[in-house]
Amino acid sequence: MASTYVVGISGGSGSGKTSFVRTLRKKLGDQATFISQDDFYFPMETQAVDENGVHNFDLPTSIDSASMAKEIRQVLAGETVQRKEYTFETVYRDDQQTEGKNEHVAKMHMFRPNPILILEGLFCFHEPELRELMDLTVFIDASDVAKLSRRIKRDRVERALPLEDVLYRYEKHVLPSYETFIKPHKSTCDIVVNNNLSYDPGLEVLLCHLKEKLK
User: Fold this and answer.
1) In terms of DSSP bridges, do strands 81-84 and 108-111 run parallel, antiparallel, or are they unpaired?
2) Who has the most CB within 10 Å: 46, 117, 134, 197?
3) Containing H/E element for 36?
């Protein structure tokens, strides 16, 4: 386990975590393994619903963090772990019974041992079992306006949700969750990346640090 450097990346919904991690993956190539909380959501039928019957995926209890921690430890111990991708597009369309786009076909992820392990997700820092595995913590930060704008674009295009539903989820689920489970960890993180306009400067800082670890 000491041979692998573990980095945790979190931030609010719409902060740009996915894009940041995607770019990081391109830069690091096969020197790093990436594990996302998005692939550890519990099945749709077990997810909590609010007072209006809308499924709430913005709760720590919506994710199987225990299984995530277990698989991380397996990778740190030198094992290769397989996990099927969790397809949000299908879940949201089932929830709203919307039509119009071809469903995304889930693929199989292979989590292999590597010098660097990147863990990403909304509640990575909230869960002690995950947080204790990290050597470095990175918080992707953005204004509420920027986050909402990105959330609207993503949910309208990728998940085919009507605008009123996107705004409802943001107000009732996303914001309360951010204030309670995500934002409090910002002050404890090693690196805070401002992503109102661009995460490039923060990304370069992180990459320089990781390159030093790879020497």
Assistant:
1) antiparallel
2) 117
3) strand 32-36
Residue found under tokens 């404890």:
188
> Are 13 and 122 spatial neighbours (Cβ–Cβ below 8 Å)?
yes
pLDDT tens track for 26-76 = 999 999 999 999 999 998 889 999 999 999 999 999 999 999 999 999 999
The CA distance from 163 to 194, in Å, is 27
CATH of the domain at 105: 3.40.50.300
Overall number of domains in the chain: 1
Domain containing 67 equals 5-214
**Strand order of the sheet with strand 32-36?**
32-36, 116-120, 5-11, 136-141, 191-194
Gap between the Cα atoms of 98 and 165, Å rounded: 12
pTM of the entire predicted model: 0.89
